[in-house]
Design a protein that fits this description.
mainly alpha; globular
Length: 415
């Protein structure tokens, strides 16, 4: 099966980002040698930082629209399979359960590795640590007072709830609803295409932020990135080998057979960084594991959209990393918010390269952390995205195997 043109273009952007990152580090290092730490250098640094800030502002604009269409379209799609309600129920239980666990791993990785501690980034001008909310405050924050607030990153939770209600309402309209569901799918595709357009600017943003980070913080930042990737890969692979082995074993499949069948979609997901592109390979792997086609034809397409354990882990770890970089302490009440926001944010992530970093805006806004962290994470996104996408795809099949046994079907492995 050939890889489509969009994936090939994605490789081009990936290469451009990598080159921009290296050039940015080089230019930043030259600045430290050519211009002493004076007001002049601070002024020069601010211009490079502005290149990254433009990317952050573009993302803030597109996030509410992306959430609305992707969640509404996905909800309408799930509702269409209502005759198989028991499959959907257990599918969501397993998908959400593993994502919550992955989010916890991300938080724990941040606590144990502390990748951002000691760098000392300065919080953005005007940033104020959030006031600890009451339980009622947290609940009401899910329901913004005015519709205009829904069209902001901070109103993302309300947008998710509204989009889900709209998706269910679409189903209730019957035949007309099916037509509206088609429009929602078009809107979802358009939103994803918009993100792809914005991503063409990413190499410039990464160049500017790399110059700024190297000029301002030097080798400390490179060490922090290295610790982040070690933390992410360690806990992500642990989730893959330990948690998924347990799931498929409970489902009645030898974990060795699971890993053998899953190896191809794992590699495809790792290299293309797209759950959507990996879907046909994942379906073939599910067939080899002996899952009935009427089950994986439901669970895998939905899973490619809403089940992203690798993304949940990455977003929770990224929130901890960004808080540590800026020296912002995480309060006890924020731990629950990080895990909940990372889980929900992973559900809302589009199945495209870099989608997890785009939705990081929602997680940071929910926890009350600087959105400038998005551009900082874009620097290492190609490396971070590869492993999290591979786990995203692999989790769909692990849960599908267990679900098959739960509903009383018997696996018939062909490997």
């Amino acid at each position: 099966m050939s890889i489509d043109m969009s994936v090939k273009k994605g490789y081009g952007i990936l290469i451009a980002i990598a080159i921009a990152f290296v050039l940015g580090l080089l230019v930043g290092y030259i600045l430290t040698l050519a211009i002493p730490e004076t007001a002049t250098r601070a002024s020069v640094d601010s211009w490079f930082k502005a290149l990254g800030d433009i990317f952050v502002r573009l993302i803030r604009i597109v996030i509410p629209v992306l959430i609305f269409f992707t969640i509404a379209a996905a909800t309408a799609s799930i509702a269409d399979a209502r005759k198989l309600g028991i499959i959907l129920f257990w599918m969501l239980v397993l998908y959400i359960g593993t994502s919550i666990l992955a989010s916890f791993w991300g938080y724990l990785a941040g606590v144990l590795f502390q990748p951002g501690v000691g760098v000392g980034l300065t919080p953005p001008a005007g940033y104020k640590p959030p006031t600890p909310p009451t339980g009622v405050d947290v609940l009401m924050s899910f329901f913004q007072l005015d519709f205009s607030n829904v069209l902001t990153v901070g109103g993302s939770m309300t947008m998710i709830i509204f989009a889900m209600i709209l998706g269910v309402s679409t189903l209730l309209l019957g035949e007309e609803g099916r037509r509206i569901a088609g429009y929602l799918k078009i809107g979802s595709d358009l939103s994803v295409a918009t993100v792809r357009v914005i991503m063409y600017y990413a190499p410039i943003a990464i160049f500017g932020y790399a110059v700024w980070l190297m000029s301002e913080y030097g080798a400390k930042m490179l060490g922090a990135y290295g610790k982040f990737l070690v933390a992410q890969y360690s806990f992500t692979l642990m989730h893959f080998f330990v948690v998924y082995s347990l799931l498929v074993a409970l489902g009645g499949l030898n974990p060795v057979k699971y890993f053998k069948a899953q190896s191809t979609p794992f590699i495809v997901a790792f290299t293309t960084r797209s759950s959507a592109v990996t879907l046909p390979y994942n379906m073939e792997a599910s067939r080899k594991m002996g899952v009935p086609d009427y089950i994986y034809n439901i669970t895998l397409p939905i899973g490619a959209t809403v089940n992203m354990d690798g993304t949940a882990l990455y977003q929770a770890l990224s929130a901890m990393f960004i808080a540590q970089l800026f020296g912002i302490p995480i309060q006890p009440y924020q731990v629950g918010l990080i895990i909940a926001a990372a889980t929900i944010g992973s559900v809302a992530t589009a199945a495209i390269p870099g989608g997890g970093t785009i939705m990081l805006a929602y997680v940071l806004a929910t926890v009350g952390l600087p959105l400038e962290g998005i551009a900082i994470m874009m620097v290492i996104d190609p490396l971070a995205d590869a492993i999290r996408t591979a786990i995203n795809a692999s989790g769909d099949n692990a849960c599908t195997v267990l679900l098959t046994r739960i509903i009383g079907e018997k696996l018939q492995p062909q490997i």
